[in-house]
Design a protein that fits this description.
Muramoyl-pentapeptide Carboxypeptidase, domain 2; 4 helices; 31% helix; globular
Length: 147
């Protein structure tokens, strides 16, 4: 079961965008921890089961094969303040997440903090306009297959 935090486990195009995002955040004085990059289908299935058939809160609506993480085109992060994760979403914490979202978008990433259903501040992705069905059908991002 793989739930990686390694940037090099992302598709090369997404890895480059992730590194750009982290560098730009650092330029604004924001320390960021990457919490998830590539997840295999077994790991995704376990996350999907959480809050459904296993204990814990629901953390995803994506089944195995339905998560952008499964296709190496998404990553999750958390900002750090004095070395501690900032999970709050209101006040100055919310402003910090919004700033990170704008930085990610400036890097060409889609920020799930803008999603209307299952809004997820920690999630960034780059799909190059491809859909999950495209990936399942064997289409590749930039002509580079990574699996």
């Amino acid at each position: 079961m793989i739930n990686s935090r390694k940037i090099e486990d992302l598709h090369p195009i997404v890895a480059a965008k992730c590194r750009d995002f982290l560098a730009r955040c650092k330029g604004f004085g924001i320390d960021v921890l990457v919490t998830s990059t590539y997840r295999d289908k077994e790991s995704q299935a376990a996350l999907y089961a959480q809050g459904r058939t296993t204990s814990g809160a629901r953390v995803t609506n994506a089944k195995a094969g339905e998560s952008w993480h499964n296709w190496r085109v998404a990553f999750d992060v958390v900002p750090l303040r004095s070395g501690k994760p900032v999970w709050g979403t209101s006040g100055t914490d919310g402003e910090l997440w919004e700033q990170m979202g704008r930085i990610g978008e400036a890097c060409g990433l889609e920020w799930a903090g803008r999603w209307h259903s299952f809004r997820e501040l920690a999630h960034f992705q780059f799909t190059g306009g491809l859909t999950l069905a495209d990936f399942r059908a064997g289409r590749t991002l930039g002509g580079v297959a990574v699996q």
